[in-house]
Amino acid sequence: MNILNLFKVAFKAVANNKMRSFLSMLGIIIGVAAVIVMMAIGQGSKESIRSELSTMGTNLLTIRPGADMRGGVRQDPSSMQTLKMEDYERIIAEKKLVTNVSPEVTSAGQVIYGNMNTNTTLYGESAEYLDIKQWVIEDGECFTEEDIKKSAKVCVVGKTIVDELFGEGADAIGKNIRFKSIPFRIVGVLKSKGYNSWGMDQDNVMIAPYTTVMKRVAAQTYFSSIVCSAITEELSDDAIDELTQILRQNHKIKDESGDSDDFTIRSQAEMMETMSSTMDTVTLILGVAAGFSLLVAGIGIMNIMLVSVTERTKEIGLRMALGATGLVISLQFFIESVLISLTGALIGVLIGVGIGDGLIPMMGMPSSVPFWSIALSFAVCTVIGVVFGYIPARKAANMDPIEAIRHE
To answer: What's the rounded Cα separation, in Å, for the pair 152 and 210?
Structure first.
């Protein structure tokens, strides 16, 4: 049994029926390309989200009000007023595993300059907020602790607000704008961050001292949240434990009472893991959906090979009469089936990689072709070639040589 000769015979048989072989490969080509493109979109989206979350600081910790029971009814966390100035001051005084801390108060509304206006979100923060969120001042400076003590009407704005109110490239430092009729003097302009994966404009932001927003804009004595940064990402869990103990003591929540916390603490790393898990699930669903086309393609290959066996019955009979065993005949059709599958896989990989690394990024979508998706495609196509080539190969091997030669 000459394996090399069997490959030559199989290759010649495929080449002699170019159109039929191509139509057999078409399902494999489309299936492999679809799998690679789906994996590329899923992986690219996952990496893009992780990258954007990383720019906010992988050691970021966010404390928010937690749901609570009032009169037997569970309250919405957003309506709770459990984070007070005393909590912020105690965290500042007792923190060991946390570096920067900023209380947060937010308000959405319209910002106006002259006859120009735009909608934005005003964030009331401490001066440490820019370090926590890794914002960079491009022009001017940030407000100071003195501004916070005096509840000064000063602010730092993003590029979008500057462009909308003053025109692109204008100097906004020292200009007075109004938010809900309250005047604010611009002391700094943030470096542009652009849009994130969710289509949110990260430059459409206005940051002012939290005392100013609490007293002059929101008229409230509690915080929407408190954001912190752990010393390192590795110490995030320990920092969460530390903050939990501080807040439980401050809120007089006793461990032995079994009362639940009236606050929640989430780390950026936890959010990244959640988003990654979600994207992995979405990618898997997309991959499975695309993979069904490979199953259909395998059935198509089996049908074509069965037709080929029927058409070449006389050839099979002659080969058997000349001494070819059933194993040799079976291997020949196995090789043809696998050859069609792998050739289709190769073309599908070239198309899939071309779309994943070329066309999709040109459309402004995140994409990253993982190598394992290419390897998986070849492995699946090899299995398809073997599995769906088995029945035609067995049919050819079980033929009676005399009946095969007589076949017309």
So the answer is: 10
How many residues does this entry show for the chain?
408
* Cα distance between residue 120 and residue 177, in whole Å: 12
Q: Are strands 69-70 and 73-74 parallel, antiparallel or unpaired?
A: antiparallel
Give per-residue pLDDT as tens, 56-105.
666 788 999 875 544 444 454 455 678 889 999 999 999 999 989 999 99
Q: Which helix (H) or strand (E) holds 123?
A: strand 116-125
Instruction: Please list the alpha-helical segments (H only) found in 134-267.
Output: 145-150, 159-166, 210-212, 236-250
Greatest mean pLDDT among 123-127, 262-266, 301-305, 306-310 lies in 123-127
Q: Token match 């501004």: residue?
A: 147
Considering the entire predicted model, what is its pTM? 0.62
Is 61 strand, coil or helix?
Answer: strand
Q: How far does CA 195 lie from the centroid of its chain? A: 15
CA distance linking residue 28 with residue 385, whole number of Å: 10
How distant, in Å, are the alpha carbons of 46, 50, 249, 365 from that of 40? 10, 15, 48, 10
Contacts of residue 124, defined as CB under 8 A and 6 or more positions apart, other chains included, come to 103, 104, 105, 106, 107, 207, 208, 209, 210, 211, 212, 213, 214, 217, 218
What is the Cβ-side half-sphere exposure of residue 59, based on CA atoms within 13 angstroms?
A: 19
Write the secondary structure of 343-370 as one string of H (helix), E (strand) and C (coil). HHHHHHHHHHHHHHHHHHHHCCCCCCCC
DSSP state of 77: G
